[in-house]
Amino acid sequence: MTHLDGADNDQAKGPGHGPRVTAREIADAAESLTDLWTMAAQQATPRLSLHQLKALRAVAQAPGLNLTALAERLDIGMPTASRLCDRLEAAGLLERGTHPFSRREVQLRLTLSGRQVLSDVAARRAQALATVLGSMEPADRVALRRGLRALHAAREGAPVRPADPARPADPARPTDPADPNRR
Q: pTM of the predicted model, to two decimals?
């Protein structure tokens, strides 16, 4: 059996503290957040699919994006991207225009309605999340923020915090000085 840090980390600090247990709990929380996000987005008008929302967000982040770049960003084929843009254009959320320097290239831009839909979805999602967070104890919210920052830092490969020489070493962590994950 392969262990995440080369040790039986699920038992490193007692049952329920290892990376596998934590990973399962985070996966459950992420699924719950995804459901919350999806339900909030579905309350917006017009009601859009997640692909349509992703397409609008991609165009909002890179105005003038062409169809090929959009397909690559969404990891979909060109025909699918074209049909997706057809529907968004028909709904008045997206417009296509020719590139100022290349008449063969089509640029994608959000319409005012498209920007308003994205703003509405963002507001609905923020409100839904704020409602859930509001039901948590303040200390739990602080712990959640700290944990999310640490998760993000670990994902980005940055140290979570400087090593504290007064803090005892974690026996489950490797002690190899060349180990990039060493604290």
A: 0.68
